[in-house]
Amino acid sequence: MNKITIIGVGCVGSTIAYTLSSMGVAAEIVLIDINYEKTLGEALDIKQGVPFGYPTNIYAGTYEDARDSNIVIITSGVARKPGQSRLELAQVNVDIIKNVADNIVEYAPNAIYIIVSNPVDVLTYVFCKYTGLPESKVIGSGTLLDTSRLRSRIAEFYSVNPKGVHAYVLGEHGDTAFVPWSTANISNIPVEDYRRTSKDLMPFSKEDVEEYVRKSGAIIISQKGATYYAVSAAVVHLCKCILGGMDSAVTVSTMLHGEYGVDDVCLSLLNLINKHGVIEKVMLPLTDEEIAKLHKSAEKLKEVIRSVEI
Prior knowledge:
With 310 residues, the chain is α/β, with parallel strands linked by helices. It has helices at 11-23, 36-47, 90-104, 120-131, 144-158, 191-194, 206-224, 229-243, 288-307; strands spanning 3-7, 28-32, 57-60, 71-74, 112-115, 138-140, 165-166, 185-186, 189-190, 248-257, 263-274, 277-282. A 6-stranded parallel sheet has the order 3-2-1-4-5-6, with helices on both faces. A 3-stranded antiparallel sheet has the order 7-8-9.
């Protein structure tokens, strides 16, 4: 029986809970939030739709109720405001995640932790260092959402099924994220060559596509106040990959130890994951220019890490 605990039941946490329930990913879902009254309401609202879907026991609980969780998802933190960068949230959310760690790890020491709160790379690093948990068990949602945004944009441009687009966003979940275009393809045809398969396709600007990916979150926040549907879909996909029977390759944020010459920072590369957590990193054949962009991303994150109190 799969059990998932969600800490933080705001827009993102509650949408993750609803999506997990509607897709039958977990038999038991525990919701934990400082606002217990709201948590009761969210659990009841989702529970009353269960008869139309999969049998799921979902309820508002305490940290102690997280015992025996397979996965713990942390979305707690102050939300990003319009015009605010993810990195500006750093110290406030570092303090919040340390408080969460103090309460949750003793009850769920063997769970796989998924960090969703922003700045996700910094908080994933802090959670690793602060808890001392095995690094393979601590995963930041990282650029999984960015990768989905990239694939949807390319698919939209070429009018193809997004599942046929194989392209990634690496590095920071933020302004220094980048696309290794040397590895990007559509049904095994390099993206830059795909337009030649049809006279109706026009070339597109890689820079514009990357800008679209980087700015999508800020645009959505300015338009509706928060982002939660796509990120929730990404996190639920990650849960399915962890709980599934086969290794899956996903772009998530994990601790680096010399990969591409980068050390002691959490950022997104392509990782193999399964029920044991992170198995290994998939070393894509990056160009020298792409590796330089990865180093730039790492340095940006290290600057923030040095500026906060862990």
